[in-house]
């Protein structure tokens, strides 16, 4: 007989929704949208082309083009012609963009500190162990290796696969 874990699953979902809400508010105050942040964060860590960003995050090059155009207008990134291929633009973070990413990361750290306030160190270690086991139950050992960037790419890939499946079912 299967146990009903709906209440626990609902608590996970609610925690995720409120953490995401805090993130959106923090980003909005910095002049970026929630969906732009993974792109900006990628550029913070890696100079690259629009195609490289799209592949790394599993989003369309057109989406990257729209977002980078907006980010460039706000002065957070700059595009320079690639020295090896004049048809490509290299995208780099500006000092303003760097400052904003660091500020957003600090805001998220504050959110996490608030979320975990009142927990003793041993409770946090225990929670970490439980979450790790749950992750392995669902995703296997590879689930342990997700970074924020690879998690974003994984979610985008799942969304694209679902969109593709919906399109196929219409045919």
Structure description:
By secondary structure, this protein is mostly helical. Helices cover 68% and strands 6% of the residues. It contains seven helices and two strands, in the order ααααββααα. Strands 1-2 form a two-stranded antiparallel ribbon. Strand 1 and strand 2 form a beta hairpin. Helix 1 packs antiparallel against helix 5 and helix 3 packs across helix 4. It is globular, with a radius of gyration of 19 Å. The mean pLDDT is 88.
Short description:
By secondary structure, the protein is mainly α.
Helices, strands, pairings?
Blueprint: H1 6-28, H2 37-45, H3 50-57, H4 61-73, E1 77-81, E2 89-93, H5 95-115, H6 121-139, H7 148-170
Antiparallel strand pairs: 1-2
Helix pairs in contact: 1-5, 3-4
